[in-house]
Design brief:
Chain A: InterPro entries: MetI-like (IPR000515), MetI-like_sf (IPR035906), Phosphate_PstA (IPR005672). The complex is a heterodimer of chains A (294) and B (252). By secondary structure, chain A is mainly α. Helices cover 72% and strands 0% of the residues of chain A. Chain A has eleven helices and no strands. The longest helix of chain A has 35 residues. Chain B contains ten helices and ten strands. Chain B is globular and about 55 Å long. The chains are: A mainly alpha (294), B alpha/beta (252). Bound molecules: adenosine-5'-triphosphate and magnesium ion.
């Protein structure tokens, strides 16, 4: 067989495999959207869930998902940023940094159920936070931190050494070089990483089942005092998220329209994550343009 | 006789075990251009980078000997590298503008140092870009990205960026080797303009370039300074055989 033929066969096989993957993805997406989209309505997106009757919505769950996401990001982003800057810009290669890197590596491959159970034992039980948004946010932080740290470190890595030397050679301190030259140049790619990890966090269920809990008490959307128990902002209330809701309906849902609600919720989840991904691209590109041509 | 602004005495530098500079004694008078020439790997860049402590970034570097800038030891324990680099700026082989506008590139050092006065910043931008002989080419798009410029223009913007912090000494490590001949000669013209006001030390592989622009030339080989003299003496009448061999292209 000559090499030209081999080449053709190889390329054909690769196309075939790639096509198959795309097909599977499209089929999944198509199925979820086709069965879920008809369920969507303003009522579905805003109404609270009903346990035994039909006609419940996912308003509370949707709100919980976003609130948890924001809290988890607010906790994990500064830590991840600091860790990534330290690891990439300051730390020399020695056993301490090797240990930290290995730890991050291991943490990032930890199954999220394990993170959830750890969160349950530590935050819910030991620290007495109970099933609450806060416990959930901490668990998500554990889940998110390694991924985010690595993605920020990768962003820093894309900036040439010459840029750093250029800053230093102007008489900027190390810190000024990082915060005023390197970080602005990496904002778009850091942001992309943040939004993509937001998608993962948004769809996470296993880490939340035993931390944020599986119940979604009705919220009073007129009460924004975080200390009131029915306030949406109260971080100590249990908060079932959309992903947990899907899991729960499918395993033990007893409302008559469980199937429809599960399909609708899945569609909402998928659409939200797709939006995150498109937003990541769009915002990243726009920001890069803005920053590089002031 | 003008005063010596920068002096190096018995300078040794080790990368780990490897001795890259083997006792350099070399002094620089204020103002004028000194070229550092020599075969690849002889330590020119290494030497240049000791002069503004750029080698601090590299792990496992050991330096012995003394470098004094205006009588102050650059490697004294209490020496402030940030201040040193404001006085001794550096331009690199690859043009490395920041991914910001031309204007922002030039004033970056000043702005971070806290200068806010818009008029003053505007004036500095114009002055520095003029000094770097790139003003006419960029004056109409100061607020566009510096990355959109040609390599030669980028390099001159980088020179302007260094000038804007008003250093006394400018170090250049093969600033034209990544550029086309036209851009190179523009950079050379720029440097000739600056030689009356700044002390310029330039590493170059281009012997013609050294002979065209340098007042003095230093020849390095294998981590040692072989000889340093007026440029025309080095090229017409070198004292050492090694220099003559190198100049006449017998090696390196
Ligand atoms: N970071 C480093 N770690 C270890 N050795 C190095 C490092 N940088 C340079 N060297 C070595 O030190 C010696 C001098 O290098 P240097 O870069 O100063 O040479 P140069 O004269 O600038 O060469 P060129 O003309 O190719 O730029 C070389 O043998 C080089 O391999
Ligand atoms: Mg070099």
């Amino acid at each position: 067989m000559n090499s030209k033929k081999q080449n053709k066969i190889a390329i054909g096989a690769l196309y075939g495999i790639a096509g198959l993957v795309v097909l599977i993805l499209l089929a999944l997406l198509g199925y979820i959207l086709a069965s879920g989209l008809p369920q969507l309505s303003w009522h579905f997106l805003t109404a609270p869930a009903k346990a035994f009757l039909k006609g419940g919505g996912v308003g509370v769950q949707l709100f919980n998902s976003f609130y948890l996401l924001i809290l988890a990001m607010a906790i994990s982003f500064p830590i991840a940023l600091g860790a990534a800057i330290y690891l990439y810009e300051y730390a020399r290669d020695n056993w301490v940094t090797t240990t930290i890197r290995t730890a991050i590596e291991i943490l990032s491959s930890l199954p999220s159920v394990v993170v959830g159970l750890f969160g349950f034992l530590f935050f819910v039980v030991k620290l007495r936070l109970g099933f609450s948004i806060l416990s959930g946010a901490f668990a998500l932080t554990f889940f998110n931190l390694p991924l985010l740290t690595r993605s920020i470190e990768d962003s820093l890595r894309t900036i040439d050494l010459e840029q750093r030397e250029g800053g230093l050679a102007l008489g900027l301190s190390r810190w000024e070089t990082i915060t005023r030259v390197i970080l602005p140049a990496t904002v778009p790619s850091i942001l992309t990483g943040v939004i993509l990890s937001a998608g993962r966090v948004f769809g996470e269920a296993a880490a939340l089942i035993y931390t944020a809990g599986q119940s979604a008490p009705a919220l009073n959307f007129a009460d924004w005092n975080p200390f009131n128990i029915s306030s949406p902002l109260n971080p100590m209330r249990p908060a079932e998220t959309l992903a947990v809701h899907i899991w729960k309906i499918n395993s033990e849902g007893i409302m008559p329209d469980a199937k429809a609600i599960s399909s609708g919720s899945s569609a909402v989840l998928i659409i939200a994550i797709l939006l995150f991904n498109f937003a990541a691209r769009y915002v990243g590109k726009r920001l890069y343009k803005r920053l590089t041509s002031a | 006789m003008s005063e010596e602004i920068l002096t190096t005495q018995d300078l040794h530098l080790y990368y780990g075990e490897k001795e890259a500079l083997k006792g350099i004694n070399l002094n620089f008078d204020a103002k004028g251009i000194t070229a550092l020439i020599g075969p690849s790997g002889c330590g020119k860049s290494t030497y240049l980078r000791t002069l503004n402590r750029m080698n601090d970034l590299i792990p496992n570097v050991t330096i012995t000997g003394t470098i004094k800038f205006k009588g102050e030891n650059l490697y004294a324990p209490n020496a402030d590298t940030v201040e040193i680099r404001k006085e001794i700026g550096m331009v690199f082989q690859q043009p490395n503008p920041f991914p910001f506008s031309i204007y922002d590139n030039v004033i970056y050092g000043l702005r971070i140092a806290g200068e806010k006065d818009k008029e003053k910043l505007d004036a500095v931008v114009e002055k520095s870009l003029r000094q770097a002989a790139v003003w006419d080419e960029v004056k109409d798009h100061l607020h566009e990205s510096a990355l959109a410029l040609s390599g030669g223009q980028q390099q001159r913007v980088c020179i302007a960026r260094v000038l804007a912090v008003s250093p006394e000494i400018i170090l250049l490590d093969e600033p034209t080797s990544a550029l086309d001949p036209v851009s190179s000669s523009q950079i050379e013209a720029t440097l000739l303009n600056l030689r009356h006001d700044y002390t310029i030390i330039i590493v170059t592989h281009n012997l013609q370039q050294a002979s065209r622009i340098a007042d003095r030339t230093a020849f390095f080989m294998n981590g040692e300074l072989v000889e340093v003299d007026q440029t025309k003496n080095i090229f017409m009448n070198p004292a050492k055989k090694q220099t003559e061999d190198y100049i006449s292209g017998r090696f390196g």
